[in-house]
Amino acid sequence: MGVLFTLIAVAGYLLPIPSLIWGWVRWLGSKPRFAPPGWRYAVAFLGLALASAIGLSVLFVASHAPEGPMKYSFALAKNSSVFNGLARSPGFRA
Which domain does 77 fall in, by range? Predict the structure, then answer.
């Protein structure tokens, strides 16, 4: 169990950050960046940009999460209007 936990921790928490940095270093070091076929380079750039935006949003949420007994209250679905709308629909069981 300890080996599996370590493997999941390394793969899920430690590898994404250096992989993203390595991807940007490779992208910025490539010349020309949008050579033919251009769609491959555009898709690679779009993927790096989206992965960076997701990583920055995760860091933002982690740094602005409240502390104390209401620590995870911002993530509770029971307070959302979507959940309330589903709860009123027939056949929905939470």
Answer: 69-94
